[in-house]
Amino acid sequence: MGVWQQIGEYLYIKKRDPKAPRDSWIRYMHGINRISIFMFILALLFMLVRFIFFKKH
Q1: CB–CB of 11/37 below 8 Å?
Q2: Do the domain assignments include residue 6?
């Protein structure tokens, strides 16, 4: 499984593989990874807005 495919599954862009093993620990790990990716994207957006709109001259 590729990295981009896994990120697509985390962000609900792509359906998950039905043959992939599922137990509670894998679900917890994927949940934490999903939260981390969302926080990273939010931080990038925050930085982008800050650099574009709040420049010091």
Answers
A1: yes
A2: yes
